[in-house]
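Anyone? Bumping this.
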Amino acid sequence: MEAPQNNVLLEVKNLKMYFPITRGLLRKKVGDVKAVDDISFEIKKHETLGLVGESGCGKTTTGRCILRVYNPTSGDIIFNGKDISTLSERRLKEHRRNMGAIFQDPFGSLNPRHSAGGIVSDPLKVHQMAAGKEMNDKVAELFNLVGLDPGMMDRVPHEFSGGQRQRIGVARALACSPSLIICDEPISALDVSIQAQIINLLEELQEKLGLTYLFIAHDLAMVQHISDRVAVMYLGRIMELTGTDELYENPLHPYTKALLSAIPIPDPIAERTRTRIVLKGEVPSPINPPSGCHFHPRCQIAIEDCKVTRPPLRDVGNGHFVACIRV
Amino acid sequence: MSIVLDVQDIKTYFHTEYGLVKAADGISFQVNQGEIIGIVGESGCGKSVSILSVMQLIQTPGEIVDGKVMFDGQDLLRYTANGAEMRAIRGSKMTMIFQEPMTSLNPVLTICRQVTESLELHLDMDRQAARERSIELLKGVGVPDAERRVDDYPHQFSGGMRQRVMIAMALSCNPRIIFADEPTTAVDVTTQAQLLELMKDLVTRQNTSLVIVTHNLGVVARYAQRIYVMYAGRIIESGLSDDIFNHPRHPYTVGLLNSVPRLGERHGTRKLIPIYGLPPNLINMPPTCAFLARCTEKVEKCSKEPWPALRAVGDQHYISCYVDIKGK
């Protein structure tokens, strides 16, 4: 199912991101937090890849590595055919206009002392893409694009509601006309009735501008709604990766099954007929993860071999990848 | 089925420097023995304030200005908030599980000290008996190695484990009713599933009533028998769980259910229908229905008449709306 090369916008190969743990006065390294532990995936043009997992599974770190906020420990990040994992600072700045980011917290991610227009125009200034009147027009255009009144450009973030603030964040991400946008939990801080507004906005923008999204979230129902394909992460590794409907209708990995069955559905009749797999214990610490398959201590179908070998992410047909030797 | 708690027309107002905020404006609900009910609404709709009012945990500038809280045949609002009567009920017959297990446990006291506190206070146990009972309670909520961990401090527990401790504390004096305010919002989905199952098992076994307050419609769908939906300080729809989720009759409830994707809906089959606009500012409340500005079903009457009172539209099903959307 190898896609033609020109169709792939981003390819992540064997990405590892280890954070050192240091002790004592001399900051001696005593171990690693393996936040992302050898993962590979690709995102096709105009596609939305959902990245789901519980807190601490490394989904945000993955997004930040792609943005090169972190310098990955090892692995390749190939964007439009070019490896960006080792770009120098100067080259990186040129490259960065191709990627945008939307963050979780619409309160913390906007500078409270800057005007909304100033926040949106910052990327344009940094990349010297517009100035003066032209920049003003561009910002007004961006405001219109995300459904904000350009007349509110001079207001500061606290004068906006949570949903509007997130729209400012979207406008900022779009300022340099990027092709890839990393959406890191863009709706989890918003109220239920507002979430759909932002999701619909993201969908419309994708259609209009041909954007590609990496959609990082823990809300599986929302991920199913917006994504074309979904990757499930657990303790720094991808457990399953496949087309959205395939994942939800035919989950193969025991972790995915448990995760899906744990999502509450707002429908009491459906809930009654559903069996729920309640996992034992909690997510172990990524400082000292279990041997072999990270999931084996909580897995219901684990065998001796699971404690020893790390299962590779293998294709079981039709682009359905799963990292489990029992499937 | 006997009624354990009958809340009648509670009004809790906050006197802020910007004006009067009617956080709970005439809230009434009943809880039967052994029943699980859900109170659902978005942030700022007054759901937490309502249950805090029942327990008289409202602090200045807040004030409970009117209403009745009938509990075991006595009106709790006739007692002063910090009087002996209220203190005897709070934490013993009526307990609460808070959202944030890190901030609701005292970081400088051991788990043992915190669980035994209410046992010693309300059940007159001595230290040793209370300690043994706490270990039992912790085992009951699934804290592994409870004999040893009882002497640990909250920071040594994970988020899910801390919430289990909170549940153990809430259950310690065999309460008649437990309020759980967003009990699983701070934890992951797999832990959420564990905690909800645990709470349900425990309250069923002890025939305790449970009130789950949440913004997550899914959480209450599985467990609650009845649901109250709140908006801008009032209950706008209430009914049996099946009716609320499958035959909602108030435009806000319908909108809320349409704006969330359901697990199992195939990708790209449905566009989400958001509720446009924002919840009203509680200081400048319109004289009409507070949902009017966002409502898609409004009729002429809505902008002329005041906010309608709850009216029955079916068996145990009430809405506060002039329009009645049948069958969605």
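Late reply, but here is one note on the structure posted above: Chain B has two domains: 3-224, 234-260+270-319.
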